[in-house]
Amino acid sequence: MTADDKADMAEAESSAIELDAEDTEAHDEVTATEPVAKKRGGVRKWALPVVLAVALLASAGVAAWMYFNQYRPDQQTNADAQRVAIDAASSGAVALLSYSPESLDQDFAAAKERLTGEFLTYYTQFTEQIVTPAAKEKQVKTEASIAQAALAEIKPESAVVLLFINQTTTSKENPDGAFAASSVKVALTKSDDRWLISAFDPV
Questions:
Q1: 2-6 contacts: CB < 8 A, separation 24 or more?
Q2: What tens digit of pLDDT does each residue of 75-104 get?
Q3: What are phi and psi of 56, to 5 degrees?
Q4: Which ranges does the record mark as transmembrane (predicted)?
Q5: Burial 82-97 (b: 16+ CB within 10 A, else e)
Q6: Which of 76, 98, 113 is the last residue in one of the domains?
Q7: CA neighbor of 107 nearest in space, from 120, 96, 117, 118
């Protein structure tokens, strides 16, 4: 083997060692980055569901807020709710002002089911102490009807309705009857989803 051959051989071995070193470094770099890549992939896998869950909870919270603060109050004061309030005031007023000596107890009991609060207390005392004795003694009979009704105010838990009422009253002294027209402001309070009369004021 010549000196040149030995030099070529030494150079080849040196190049091979350098290549092996480079391969080893590259392998080490790949091996070192694999756990990071796997870790990042794992984070992505569970991060997306968490983000979606948070977004869903947030949207549900917004929907609940809108329902209780905007939609539900609007629903409780919309056109249907207004009609219900007007009907409650109208039927309640007719029940209050209509009675017959033959059925006083039933008439007053039916009326009291439509009342609430201090007005219920007042009506009970007034009918027991004043109306009942007079109606029995003089055979007083009254019939009321609603000529017109208009909503003056409505909130989710209260309302005010203006009524124009026609009333005919007959008695032993006046069998032909007497006609009267009046206007009344009826205050309503909602209790267990029912409109009840809490005030009844002539205007």
A1: none
A2: 567 889 999 999 999 999 999 999 999 999
A3: -65, -45
A4: 46-68
A5: eebbbebbbebbbbbb
A6: 76
A7: 96
Contact between residue 163 and residue 184 where contact means Cβ atoms under 8 Å apart: yes
Instruction: Check whether residue 48 and residue 97 sit in a common domain.
Output: no
Domain identity same for 3 and 17: yes
Residue 7 per-residue DSSP state: H
Pairwise CA distance, residues 103 & 93, whole Å: 18
Take residue 5 and report the two structure tokens written for it: 């051959």
Q: H or E segment at 142?
A: strand 141-154
Is 196 within 8 Å of 116 (Cβ atoms)?
yes
Q: How far apart are CA 203 and CA 199, in angstroms?
A: 12
Tens digits of residue pLDDT in 25-50: 444 444 444 454 445 555 555 555 55
Compute the distance between CA of residue 104 and CA of residue 55 in angstroms, rounded to an integer: 63
Q: Are residues 68 and 162 in the same domain?
A: no
Other beta carbons less than 10 A from residue 144's beta carbon: 20
In angstroms, how far is CA 130 from the centroid of its own chain? 42
- Alpha carbon distance 63, 57 (integer Å): 10
Q: Distance between CA atoms of 96 and 132, rounded to whole angstroms?
A: 13
The residue range of the domain holding 35 is 1-76
Structure tokens at 134: 């007079």
